[in-house]
């Protein structure tokens, strides 16, 4: 255990308590949603860990560590399942948490009971004594199984998020407010912290005889408390993000040979009616315009144009933007204004798509075009 540090302990307390408050606000925020409940629990679990460490230092300064071992607040086994079910809830509006899913949280109950036993009390304290207490091995096994749990659930959560983003590009032409890119931050931070933490403590224990603990222990939990608060705030602001109808099922479809006549029909409608100018164009809308099944249209775009729906529509928008730049009235609008007129909905999406298409930023492209005309 480290020496008490009033400044760092206070910082941990302040940010951990604020994160817990944000978690509670998320839990009661209306309209109530399954995803908000899981997100609030995730923030609570991590804030609780930071608060737990601050409490350790307070009790240590009053020589009450024997009391702390009976009120241990860490719930390591709740992190993985909560993160996983939050990801499922926020990406799939049809997902419904059932009673059988409660089995994923059974290890949390067992962990709570473990912390009330001598295996934990003697094992955790004995880790920093010479010789190491015989119960320490049980404590370390419990901790590493928790890390394995977090790692497995994190991989599952990232897999869902990646598949969700692939699905988005098959169905929407503007996806910036649907991608849930911000969700990668808590997934990476929350899972990476304990993996890195346990590796660091083991390196310190075996290679440096625990001499580094004073330099990294409290600062690491200050970082965790501050980061948890920031993620709690960010999560609260993004809590109303709506799911887009994605279901966690296989994205594979029956492959059929290219259908050139249907591909030509799609191309003709895109060029004549310019549906891509609608910033809210999605696969369903275009399929209705073409009097096709959305699944059939998606397959035609994938097979005949070797693109997903997102790339297919935005390529038309890029070409429309290029044409507007050479039009006489082009100087009446900014580059971003021209992009919005072509169906783009955000600056970041436009810049990203344009650079992937041309290899240049819009301003660099315009400058090159002007130089050529001179």
UniProtKB/TrEMBL annotation:
PROSITE patterns: HTH_ARAC_FAMILY_2 (PS01124). Keywords: DNA-binding, Membrane, Transcription, Transcription regulation, Transmembrane, Transmembrane helix. InterPro entries: Homeodomain-like_sf, HTH_AraC. It holds the Pfam family HTH_18. The chain crosses the membrane at residues 6-28, 37-56, 102-123, 143-162, 182-200, 216-233. The keyword Transmembrane helix applies. Gene3D superfamilies: Homeodomain-like. Residues 264-368 form the HTH araC/xylS-type domain. GO terms for molecular function: DNA-binding transcription factor activity; sequence-specific DNA binding. This is Transcriptional regulator, AraC family. It comes from Flagellimonas zhangzhouensis. The lineage of its organism: Bacteria, Pseudomonadati, Bacteroidota, Flavobacteriia, Flavobacteriales.
């Amino acid at each position: 255990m480290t020496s008490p540090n009033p400044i760092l302990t206070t910082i941990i307390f302040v940010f951990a308590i604020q994160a817990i408050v944000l978690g509670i606000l998320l839990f009661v925020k209306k309209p109530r949603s399954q995803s908000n409940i899981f997100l609030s629990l995730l923030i609570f679990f991590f804030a609780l860990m930071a608060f737990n460490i601050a409490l350790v230092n307070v009790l240590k300064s009053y020589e009450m560590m024997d009391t702390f071992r009976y009120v241990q607040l860490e719930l390591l086994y709740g992190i993985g399942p909560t993160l996983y079910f939050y990801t499922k809830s926020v990406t799939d509006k049809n997902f419904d948490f059932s009673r059988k899913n409660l089995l994923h949280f059974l290890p949390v109950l067992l962990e709570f009971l473990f912390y009330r036993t001598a295996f934990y009390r003697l094992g955790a304290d004995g880790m920093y004594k010479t010789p190491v207490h015989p119960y320490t091995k049980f404590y370390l096994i419990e901790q590493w199984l928790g890390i394995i749990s977090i790692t497995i659930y994190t991989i599952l959560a990232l897999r869902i998020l990646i598949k969700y983003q692939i699905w988005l590009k098959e169905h929407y032409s503007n996806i910036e407010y649907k991608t849930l890119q911000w969700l990668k931050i808590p997934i990476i931070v929350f899972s990476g912290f304990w993996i890195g933490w346990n590796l660091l403590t083991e390196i310190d224990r075996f290679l440096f005889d625990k001499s580094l603990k004073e330099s990294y222990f409290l600062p690491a939990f200050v970082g965790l408390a501050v980061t948890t608060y920031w993620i709690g705030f960010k999560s609260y602001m993004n809590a109303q993000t709506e799911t887009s109808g994605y279901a966690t099922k296989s994205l594979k479809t029956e492959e059929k040979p290219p259908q050139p006549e249907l591909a030509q029909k799609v191309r003709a409608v895109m060029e004549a009616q310019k549906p891509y100018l609608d910033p809210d164009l999605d696969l369903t809308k275009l399929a209705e315009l073409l009097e096709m099944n959305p699944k059939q249209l998606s397959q035609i775009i994938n097979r005949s144009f070797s693109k997903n729906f997102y790339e297919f529509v935005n390529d038309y928008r890029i070409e429309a933007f290029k044409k507007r730049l050479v039009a006489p009235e082009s100087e009446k609008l900014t580059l971003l204004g021209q992009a919005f007129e072509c169906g783009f909905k955000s600056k970041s999406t436009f810049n990203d798509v344009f650079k992937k298409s041309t290899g240049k930023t819009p301003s660099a492209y315009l400058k090159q075009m002007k130089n050529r005309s001179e």
